[in-house]
Design a protein that fits this description.
This protein is an all-alpha fold and 233 residues long. The protein has helices at 4-14, 25-30, 35-58, 68-90, 92-98, 109-119, 124-153, 176-199; strands at 156-157, 160-161. Helix 3 runs antiparallel to helix 7 (124-153).
């Protein structure tokens, strides 16, 4: 499953980091007080994820196995620093809104997880699109959460007034508990879709499994979870 479209579809739907794999919960819950923050954080993470996947894939046969994780962190930290400088120079308002969560991308489990599970084991092109797909999936998740929280909590979407003037904002939705409420609601919707698929006889075993293989014919017993998403190139 290494074509560009398959990697994009995998990251956005089948293994969506937010609603399926439940990864990167810290920025997901913290920065999604508005739709703009959500899409900004998502796209920033996508750029870093795609570039780090690309670089790690290029160096996969050079990096010694014993020091691969420190090497991955150095690569990711380099791209995070570059992106942060660019945000400070060209989009300072977004940089101020995201604050500390930009440097924390260095230890985001989505990025390190894809570096370990996919980029370090697969060719450059597939790794690049895997990073883009996962990044887009993360962006979609954060944007959806941000839209709902901003709409209910403030009455706007992307800063534009949507709700009527008589609407009384539910301020808890732009506070910490609101993030948990919205994430739980959207995850429940995803689970409902999975259940409806199962009732129709469709294979939903891979949803929330973090595995891109066919569980029905897999003989590994999920022992190869660390290598999910592909094989050594």
């Amino acid at each position: 499953m290494n074509t560009a479209l398959e990697r994009l579809w995998n990251g956005m739907v089948k293994e969506n980091p937010t609603f399926v794999l439940m990864l990167g919960m810290c920025p997901t819950l913290a920065v999604t007080t508005s739709a703009m923050n959500g899409i900004g954080m998502g796209l920033t993470t996508m750029v870093i994820l795609a570039l780090s996947n690309l670089m790690i894939s290029m160096l996969r046969k050079i990096i010694p196995d014993e020091v691969r994780v420190p090497a991955f962190i150095v690569v990711v930290a380099s791209f995070v620093t570059i992106v942060q400088f660019l945000l400070e120079a060209y989009i300072p308002s977004l940089n101020d809104s995201l604050g500390l969560y930009i440097p924390l991308i260095v230890v985001n489990c989505i990025i390190l997880g894809r570096a370990e599970a996919y980029a370090s084991k697969n060719p450059i092109g597939a790794s690049l699109f895997d990073g883009i797909g996962m990044g887009l999936g993360f962006t979609i998740g954060l944007t959806f959460i941000g839209v709902i929280r901003e709409l209910i909590g403030v009455g706007t979407v992307f800063g534009f007034q949507v709700m009527p003037e008589a609407y009384e904002p539910v301020s808890i939705f732009v506070m910490a508990p609101g993030a948990f409420f919205v994430l739980a609601l959207l995850t429940a919707v995803q689970n409902r879709v999975k259940m409806s698929w199962e009732k129709k006889g469709k294979d939903a075993s891979r949803i929330q499994s973090g595995c891109s293989a066919d569980c029905a014919s897999c003989a590994s017993g999920c022992k190869g979870m660390a290598g999910q998403g592909g094989t050594e190139a």
